[in-house]
Amino acid sequence: MLKQAARLVSGIADVVVRVTRLRRDWVLHAMAGIPVALYGAGLGMLAIKAELNMVAVCAFIAGLTFAITKEAADHLCNLDAIARGERPVHGVELMDAVFSLLASGLLALALQLRWV
């Protein structure tokens, strides 16, 4: 079942890449930002019983935390590889973080404007 889910995500990413001409990596970062933002929104609704405005803030903060943490983890992994005398394998790019945050930002905006 996990392989099927991975194929589905990969297929969706391929379609989005063909349609938008964005880099696949950026599309995957944006796709990863969506469930993180939904988790943040859900946490805002269930755990702190926040008003809709604060739920949008929770979604955005979750996406921001994810974007920064992901790129920081890649950077630390690269430093570890260099320390072992190996070649770094992760790209650490601002645009990766931007696209991760973009998805959660759009969800937060939709919540704020009460589109969902």
Protein topology:
Layout: H1 2-20, H2 24-46, H3 52-83, H4 94-112
Helix pairs in contact: 1-2, 2-3, 2-4, 3-4
Determine the mean pLDDT: 86
Class computed from helices, strands and strand pairing: mainly alpha
Number of helices: 4
* Shape verdict: globular
Q: What proportion strand?
A: under 5%
Unreliable segments of 5+ consecutive residues: none
Task: Give, in order, the helices and strands.
Answer: HHHH
Oligomer: single chain
| Strands, count | 0
Terminal Cα separation, in Å? 29 Å
How is the biggest beta sheet arranged?
Answer: none
Helix content: over 70%
Query: If you compute it from the alpha carbons, what radius of gyration comes out, rounded to the nearest whole angstrom?
Result: 16 Å
Account of the protein in words:
This protein is mostly helical and 116 residues long. It is 80% helix and 0% strand. It has helices at 2-20, 24-46, 52-83, 94-112. Helix 1 (2-20) crosses helix 2 (24-46), helix 2 crosses helix 3 (52-83) and helix 3 packs antiparallel against helix 4 (94-112). It is globular, with a radius of gyration of 16 Å.
